[in-house]
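Researcher: Please generate the 3D structure of the following complex. Treat every line as part of one assembly.
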Amino acid sequence: DTGVSQDPRHKITKRGQNVTFRCDPISEHNRLYWYRQTLGQGPEFLTYFQNEAQLEKSRLLSDRFSAERPKGSFSTLEIQRTEQGDSAMYLCASSVDWAEAFFGQGTRLTVV
Amino acid sequence: GENVEQHPSTLSVQEGDSAVIKCTYSDSASNYFPWYKQELGKRPQLIIDIRSNVGEKKDQRIAVTLNKTAKHFSLHITETQPEDSAVYFCAASLTSYDKVIFGPGTSLSVIP
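Model: Done. Output below.
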């Protein structure tokens, strides 16, 4: 599969635990985006990278959230001290500088 | 920042009829307007897009129109089929490779 890959697909965690998600973009895509989607809503922008540089972070991204893209390839999104309100689908997308982004299948997080 | 509104939130049509979804945006700097289709449990998929230098674009049964002065854009699906049933999101962005701001979505049901 040469599309955007996200791991894991599903994650159930207890409130207060830390979780980390991984996104592997399409090969040679230099831009990588993270979005969050709750049930019945459109995806909300969280942050994005151009190569390894994090260019923008949404105000939605509290201090408990951190994203990295250390070598400009895959990216990780970590949520510390999870809360029930963090339950959502976390979507990753990637693109090149002149074209639209393609989305991964997402990681569905459930905080119990 | 950009805000995208979308109407209606739900739409039910008979197979073969047309469906129209309307959106407005707030940021006059937006120049790229993609439309995504999301089936239950799947990733958003780009179905058509339009750039600000174009007023209308058509791809088989799907057409989009853009009125940049009024900050309105619309999706038209003709000869609807049951497989068109999904949630449709309009969105706005500065360019095709910038962060995308999504509308809240329209749940389309095509009744056989």
